[in-house]
Amino acid sequence: MRRVFGKVRVRAAAGASLVVAVALVAAGTALLLVLKNNLVGQADLQAENAAREVATQIATGKPYEKLDLPDGDDRPVVVLAEDGRVLAAGDDVRAVDGNAVTERQPPATRQPDGSGSGSGSDDDDDDREIKPGEVEDKARHSGGTATVGHRTADYRFATVEAKDTQGDKAVVRAGAPLAAEREAVGSVRTAMLIGLPCLLLVVAGVTWLVTRRALRPVEGIRREMAAITASTDLSRRVPEPGSRDEIDRLARTTNETLGALQESVERQRRFVADASHELRSPIASLRTQLEVGIAHPELLDAEGAVEDAVRLQNLAADLLLLARLDAGERPADTRIDLAALVREEVSQRVGDRIAVQVGDLAGVEVAGSRSQVGRVLGNLLDNAERHAAGTVRASVVRDGRWAVLRVEDDGPGVPPEERERIFERFVRLDDARSRDDGGAGLGLAIARDVAERHGGTLAVRDGSVFELRLPAA
């Protein structure tokens, strides 16, 4: 079991690490993309501002040789004519996209190369012809290289067209370096590559410890259950952590199950002991009579032997029915007319000490086993016969969705404090009563078990009225 818990901890740690790794990789990729786009956008904006400054000077009529162009390698600028001639270039700018600024450049195109256009324009704005002294409204952005001094690097270029006061068109192409963007993206990527394994180790370790702590009560429950199984001592209980979580509820449920199992086993043991005690008396009596009959045939009490055999047969039948009920036997789902059942049962009781009177018999049906419900009625009538002074009455009424079968007698009744105890197995309230007259104390227990199996109840009302309630079909 320790190996099982170890596997659970490993799977939990691996699963948490995998989820975190996937989430971090996705978040890191998104972060890098957003960071790169933002930095490229800033470079596009810087390049466009530089291009517009130069284009504005051209539109105002400033000569090309006197243009104020940015110095250094962070803003390379080149001004081209429509035919590709270089009209002006920044200091130390040697080449743009591999073309020397002293040579004729390729004619400027209005379509960018698509490598991250920072600002688009619709066709109407792109096709509108600018007038003398105006600067193009929309700039076109593209990536490229520039050589400033002896250093060649990658840049983002903004291209803006302008016309001087004479109507001559010039194309201004200004660049902004991408070194800062690449350095920032590289730093973030390096930090992620270093931090991700460390974070995964932390997540795996924390998950391992938390899972181990969470499963520790489960291991205690397992050990106690193993000890209970080995000792067969059902009075023991598993430890409850008191954490008010799923494991605490599991421990409480386990203890409740153990309690129910202990009660069931104890009830079964009492049942076996009581059954053995009840069976021993008629068997001993029957054996004695048979032995006397063998030794002295003239003294054989045949009627008494038959009565003991019948009593033994009835007790065995009761025990068998209780065993079937305890095993969870489901009653048959047939329609039973309670009024017809009462009439049939009363008509068969011709040898009773007191004749059973039939009261109101409402036409109501219930669903269940006819033999078992009939057994309940017979047991209730037998009980009433033993205690009645001179009247036993059976009736059937309907109470809402319930079918109610009542059996009452004019006997002394059951004391209120004993009205639940009489439904226990092998319980006889009159301890002085003989077994021959009182039975084994199983009739009412069987009756209540059958009633509950049929979704109903059996209780004592007003001392000597036994009321069986079953759901009406």
SSE arrangement:
Layout (H helix, E strand, L loop, with lengths): L1 H58 L17 E5 L4 E4 L3 E4 L2 E2 L22 H5 L12 E9 L2 E13 L5 E9 L1 H53 L14 H50 L6 H25 L7 E4 H11 L7 E6 L3 E4 L1 H18 L4 E8 L2 E8 L25 H4 L4 H11 L3 E5 L3 E7 L2
Parallel strand pairs: 9-11
Antiparallel strand pairs: 1-2, 1-7, 3-4, 3-5, 5-6, 6-7, 8-10, 11-12, 12-14, 13-14
List descriptors.
alpha+beta; 4 domains; Helix Hairpins; Beta-Lactamase; 473 residues; 7-stranded antiparallel beta sheet; 50% helix
Q: Kindly provide the radius of gyration, computed on alpha-carbon positions and rounded to a whole number of angstroms.
A: 51 Å
CATH level-four homologous superfamily name of the largest domain: Histidine kinase-like ATPase, C-terminal domain
CATH topology of the largest domain: Heat Shock Protein 90
CATH class of the largest domain: Alpha Beta
Proportion of β residues?
15-25%
How much helicity do the residues have? 40-55%
Number of domains: 4
With strands numbered from the N-terminus, the spatial order across the biggest sheet is 2-1-7-6-5-3-4
What structural class is derived from the secondary structure elements? alpha+beta
Please describe the biggest sheet, giving its number of strands, its sense, and whether it closes into a barrel.
7 strands, antiparallel
In terms of quaternary structure, the protein is: single chain
CATH architecture of the largest domain: 2-Layer Sandwich
Low-pLDDT ranges? 110-126, 431-437
